[in-house]
Write a structure and sequence with these properties.
The protein is mainly α. Helix content is about 55%, strand content about 10%.
Length: about 300
């Protein structure tokens, strides 16, 4: 018995080490997603945005002044006279603190000088920070990192479940993904009806974690028909029921542009995090369950 208890302790230590290792990778991936979302833009993109903003503000100011005939009338004094209005009775507002915005006229008069000055200030900025990728690349990078995070979270949950199978209680992270813990995933559900030459219809459904074409739906539905029903009735056709056109692919699209699966059942997940040490501990854990007489859950 001591030998079995020792094996349990050893398996427990190995599982906890594996979980600690994968949780560190999860934290690193979460930090990566946060950095991709909130890191400063590259200096070149900031300069381009500043230049575009200056041009837009200057053009808008010019258009607004044309409407008032200020420029056409040659009223330079009126053009460069800044005015502001204040409500002295408004709470917390005083005439002395009324802001006067000169940015529009400066963007119109000196666009190149403003852009160059701001760019120079950015180049000579004393603040030390690491800029992130360009904004156009961020959505793809965040999507890829989020997909990796989901795989890692699934693997973490599998390890915790592995521990529960041999009697270990391993606390989950406070920010653990509830959908992963519950084994939830998005699925496309297709209802169909088996129509016999003579006899009772058979109504059922199939589900997939990716959109299917009509041909794929019919093929899967054919295999989903119960053997006893097929033995009793001669199948005439299969009808797809209540199909949403947005949830079905053209046959050509399904062949050449198949959508990758986003989330799969836990039993079908690929453990991409497995190292030789992990595989060894998994084999030993399986052997230990057998020694203890613990049944392995059916997939």
């Amino acid at each position: 018995m001591n030998g079995i208890a020792g094996k349990v302790r050893t398996a427990g230590v190995e599982l906890r080490n594996q979980i600690g290792e994968i949780q560190q990778v999860i934290q690193d991936t979460q930090d990566e997603i946060d950095w991709l979302s909130n890191s400063p833009l590259p200096a070149a993109e900031i300069k381009a945005r500043v230049t575009a903003d200056i041009a837009e503000r200057g053009a808008r100011f010019f258009a607004e002044q044309q409407k008032g005939q200020v420029i056409y009338s040659g009223a330079v004094d009126e053009l460069l006279t800044f005015q502001a209005h204040s409500d002295p009775f408004a709470e917390g507002v005083t005439i002395a603190n009324t802001p006067i915005k000169a940015a529009p006229v400066l963007c119109w008069l000196f666009p190149d000088q403003l852009a160059a000055r701001i760019g120079e200030s950015l180049d000579n900025c004393e603040l030390s920070f690491e800029s992130g990728p360009p904004s156009g690349e961020r959505p793809h990078l965040i999507e890829a990192a989020t997909a990796r995070l989901l795989i890692l979270e699934n693997q973490e949950e599998d390890l915790i479940t592995e521990g529960e199978g041999i009697g270990l209680e391993i606390a989950r992270r406070e920010d653990a993904n509830p959908a992963v813990i519950l084994g939830a995933y998005e699925a496309h559900v297709y209802k169909f009806r088996g129509v016999p030459h003579i006899g009772n219809y058979h109504v059922s459904e199939i589900e997939s974690d990716e959109s299917l074409s009509r041909t794929e739906i019919l093929t899967r539905a054919r295999h989903a028909l119960p053997s006893d029903w097929l033995a009793e009735y001669e199948l005439e056709s299969i009808e797809i029921l209540g199909l949403n056109n947005d949830d079905i692919l053209d046959d050509d699209e399904a062949t050449s542009h198949a959508k990758p699966r986003t989330t799969a059942r836990r039993t079908a997940r690929q453990k991409q995090f497995q190292s030789p040490a992990f595989e060894k501990s998994a084999i030993e854990a399986g052997a230990l369950r057998k020694d203890l007489g613990i049944e392995t859950p059916e997939e």
